[in-house]
Amino acid sequence: MSTEPPPFGSGQSPDEDPFRKQPPPRQDGGSPYDPPPRQPPYGGGGGQPPFGGQPPGDQPPPYGGGPYGGDPYGGGPYPNDPLSGMPPLAESGKRVLARIIDMILVGIVVGLLAWAFRISQYTVDSDDFEFGKSLGQEALAAVLYIAYDTFFTVRNGQTLGKKLMRLRVANLNDGSTPSVQTALIRAAVLWIPFAFCCACIWTAIAGGWSFFDKPYKQGLHDKAAKTVVVSTG
């Protein structure tokens, strides 16, 4: 039973998450949570190896098994491939479009609030011309972007942009909707540098990483939170 707290506002436990991967059915009719049946060594003779040591059937696969050496994040009951049983990974181009939509939506709110509370500053004098956002506006942008991303990711894995593009965020190890902690880490890595220093440059680097990352097409914020983005249709 998972000890991860249920997403706020969802009213369900993580084990009831409809997106959570389920162990594949056992071919021998047993429970999928039971260990696989032990194979008799050397074709069913029932004896011990001729030179002693551990029977081959009891030896674990090297590096956790799987084409990539097992789940690199150490989670889930799927030793071969963490993506087994999940929808296909999202196209990086669609991820970019979804992110642009989110940036525009939240950016409009940030701009309106900054104007309403007069926290944008303009400094002009004979020696210097400076136009920039005040610390207050930067903090406001960071809080709103992180809150927006975290809330919708925990709710069902979809921000408004991702919903329009038919994408969702999922935990890499089991395909479930990310927890508050996971979503918060993911949002903070993406939006804090964006708000305070690097703006679109950091967003392009963090999000654009998915174009080149293999095998999971993760952005840098996905790697920090151990998540992937998958298609919903």
Q: Helix count, per DSSP?
A: 6
Q: Please give the radius of gyration in angstroms.
A: 24 Å
What strand line-up does the widest sheet have? 1-2
The overall strand count is 4
Share of β-strand residues? 5-15%
Ends apart, CA distance between termini: 30 Å
**Shape descriptor:** globular
**How confident is the prediction overall: mean pLDDT?**
75
What is the helix content?
A: 25-40%
Descriptive account of the structure:
The protein has six helices and four strands, in the order ααββααβααβ. About 13% of the residues have low confidence. A two-stranded antiparallel sheet has the order 1-2. A hairpin with a 4-residue loop joins strand 1 and strand 2. With 233 residues, it is mainly alpha-helical. 39% of the residues lie in helices and 9% in strands.
In brief:
The chain has 233 residues and is mainly α.
Main features:
RDD family protein; 233 residues; globular; RDD; two-stranded antiparallel ribbon; 9% strand; transmembrane helix; two-stranded antiparallel sheet; mainly alpha; transmembrane
